[in-house]
Description:
Number of helices: 3
Number of domains: 1
Mean pLDDT: 89
Helix content: 40-55%
Order of helices and strands: EEHHH
Strand content: 5-15%
Distance between the termini: 20 Å
Strand order of the largest sheet: 1-2
Low-confidence stretches: none
Number of strands: 2
Largest sheet: 2 strands, antiparallel
Radius of gyration: 12 Å
Amino acid sequence: MPKFPSPCIGVCKFKREGHCIGCSMTKTQKSMGKKLKKPKERAAFLQLVMAQQEVMGRYTHWRLAFGRRCEKKGLKVPKLRGD
Length: 83
């Protein structure tokens, strides 16, 4: 399983009820995500962030920015499970 980059896109402004306006993660989620080492854990965390973005809306720029980061590693952006 390929190692995907962090869902963080480097904006880090927590202005939406404690969620980052760039990636939708909270500070707790960001620190939790950094501690995950196993590929399955990282993949599940990425799915969580992607689902969170779908529910919260207005994070359309994230997919493009994250997609560029994935392309640099030769990866395709994973699809949200259930899509």
